[in-house]
Inverse folding.
């Protein structure tokens, strides 16, 4: 059984779930519109350029989870899935997952986006497990802080290594699909790195290394 690992945002999804969630909160009037939209866009562009300060971003992005009651968060996420996420899951994405599933591979999503946002998406996609940035919870409420190692850049590799020890799986004949330069540390570790609708830096790197470049867009 091979391990098939997938980045989520702009890889399996035609869009960035973290950014979309922030925009959704603005549209729902749950955060200050102008200020939040401006900062949300700034962080997204910094991520795309490979310049994101993950701790600064998490302090920003996890704060609303601590300010909205859990029952309301659940309903907001249900609406978010319907309006923003399901329309961005393409047929090529579902076909790729189905091909790995048919081979008997273990399907793992690994993403910097927090678990509150991504767990229902992973369930929708039918993968076997999810590694995501974990927001801290105390007595059933989010605190606005992160728990453990953020699942970002080298942190993805560290989190994956911990997970491999826990599960007994390994990277022999492993696959990793990603769109982003931020995932180069993990792409370099797997047997079969694949660039998916990649940014310019990853395109250049994949071309130089002879990695496959594919698209999951329609």
């Amino acid at each position: 059984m091979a391990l098939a690992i997938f980045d989520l945002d702009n890889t399996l999804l035609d869009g960035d779930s973290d950014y979309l969630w922030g925009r959704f909160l603005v549209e729902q009037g749950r955060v200050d519109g102008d200020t939040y939209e401006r900062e949300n866009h700034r962080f997204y562009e910094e991520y795309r350029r490979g310049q994101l300060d993950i701790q600064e971003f998490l302090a920003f992005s996890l704060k609303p989870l601590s300010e909205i009651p859990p029952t309301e968060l659940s309903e907001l996420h249900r609406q978010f899935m319907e309006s923003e996420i399901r329309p961005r899951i393409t047929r090529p994405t579902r076909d790729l997952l189905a091909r790995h599933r048919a081979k008997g591979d273990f399907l793992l999503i690994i993403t910097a986006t927090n678990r509150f946002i991504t767990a229902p998406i992973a369930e929708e996609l039918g993968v076997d497990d999810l590694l995501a940035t974990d927001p801290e919870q105390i007595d059933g409420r989010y605190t606005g802080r992160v728990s453990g190692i953020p699942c970002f850049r080298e942190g993805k590799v560290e989190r994956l290594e911990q997970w491999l020890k826990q599960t007994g799986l390994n990277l022999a004949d492993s696959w990793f699909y990603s769109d982003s330069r931020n995932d180069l540390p993990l792409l370099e570790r797997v047997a079969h790195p694949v660039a998916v609708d990649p940014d310019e830096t990853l395109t250049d790197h994949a071309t130089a290394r002879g990695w496959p470049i594919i698209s999951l867009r329609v």
Notes: The chain has a mean pLDDT of 96.
